[in-house]
Amino acid sequence: MGSCNNKSKWSNKLSRKSSVLKGKQSSIKGTVGEYDTIAKLTKAGYYVAKSCDPTCPFDIVIVDKNGKIQLLDIKTITYRKRAKGKILKNKPKGSYKIHRTATKEQKRLGIRLLMINYED
Asked: Which domains does the chain have, with CATH numbers?
């Protein structure tokens, strides 16, 4: 049997890990959303390949049954928590969507942004 001291050490480790995860929340949401999208596209009949280069301008390559290739950069829809100079007229906090646009390189390569909504 374990001692009370061991339980305390385990509890401290767990609380430290959860505080570290809070800082990486957006990264975790992005990763989960990306893999969820990959699963949905695969179920829809696309061939899907994921980029393994972290500096790659696209996240996945999809190919339909006719051989049409598309490069996609998956982005999670996010909302501003604070107005930052904007007046929140009759809008609750977190209702201003952060709009994403493709970079110059993504536009040049024909990469499309795929905006997804993360659900807990």
From this structure: 4-116 (3.40.1350)
The residue type at 76: T
What is d(CA 105, CA 111) in angstroms, rounded to the nearest whole number? 9
Question: What is the DSSP track for 71-83?
Answer: EEEEEE--EESS-
Helices (H), the chain: 4-23, 25-43, 104-109
Cα separation, 74 vs 35, in Å, equals 10
| Tens digits of residue pLDDT in 52-83 | 999 999 999 999 999 999 999 999 888 776 66
Closest CA to 86 of 95, 73, 78, 77: 95
pTM score, whole prediction: 0.70
